[in-house]
Amino acid sequence: AMADDDDLPISTFGNLMSEGLALGRRGLHEKALCCFNDALKLRAGDKNCLVTRSRCFLKLGDTANSLKDAEASLQHDKAFSEGLYQKAETLYSMGDFEFALVFYHRGQRLRPDLHKFQLGINKAEEAIVNCIGHPSLVKLESKKELGFVSRQAEVQHRALQSKPPKDQKPTKKKSVKTEHQLLGELYADKAYLEKLLKDEDLMQTTTRKGIKVEALILDGISYLNKRRDFWQQQKPIYAREYERMRLLQGRMYDKKRKTSDIRRFIAKNMEDIELLLARGSAKESCRRAEHLLKKIQGWAEDEVPNKNELIGNLYNYMGNAQLAMEQMEAALRSHKLDLECARQNSLPDAVSRALDNIGHVYARLGRFQQAINT
């Protein structure tokens, strides 16, 4: 018997911690929790293990035990940064954003080198603004004994004042649309669990471990409801709508700014093309016109006002530049493209201009009858 005992592996504190962390990384939080429980039996009150178990509880949705462990890790060392961070994270998950903010700040003062405390401050402040609006929009009444009250304490106080009778169940149900927005992909899971509840035979069955299926399903629905309520508090629907509107307005503004920039760019280039031709730099004028034409053809209709008219104008400039360079056939092609563009888009002035230019090229080529007909 003694020999058998010697063969058993010795579970050390370090081994249990390593195994628990490895299980946690694989998402097996229930098994990880058993490891941390055993580790704490070997080294009761170890602050690092308490913080690790607190994280594990939080992953399992057990905020009460998560908070208990985080507070226990701070019992003998109030400046333990990991404990402060874990307490802040748990309070945040509970929807108690003001107290979470207090502990994020406390941690940041002690460890300004740890960036996670600043991130915590940012998300807690954002959640508070989403819940109550910006501080500049909130007017506080001046009262003599106005103290710092946590959101949870306030909620508990209200609950005590207007406690419904035990047999009375709350009838207020969140609208399907709101719930869908809050739960996202998890909404389908909740709907599925609620559908299973209606199967009376299934509700009476038990698992191999002797747990009633009904209890498991109710536990799942309760967890999803807690998440829904937390997400509603952290970022209410109106805050999401506001953000969506801001994003939309930003895109509209960017689009307007882009269109205005494009307009200025085109106007400047058109002016340069015309000036170059007037000053006798036909080759450069033609090169610039071809370059701008490619650019305009690549832009969308709504980005370039009067896109077709501009394209016609550029063919006109190219034709005139080619004529100046004695490139008659090229000039004829460009002016015919201008005419085609004008006719397709019902632009009578541009049609007249293109016909006049085509006639002029024909005359220069000695094709007088075609010039007269044109």
UniProtKB/TrEMBL annotation:
Keywords: Cell projection, Cytoplasm, Cytoskeleton, Repeat, TPR repeat. InterPro entries: ODAD4, TPR-like_helical_dom_sf, TPR_rpt. GO terms for cellular component: axoneme. Residues 157-177 are annotated as: Disordered. The keyword Cytoplasm applies. Residues 164-177 have a biased composition (Basic and acidic residues). It is found in: Cytoplasm, Cytoskeleton, Cilium axoneme. This is Outer dynein arm-docking complex subunit 4.
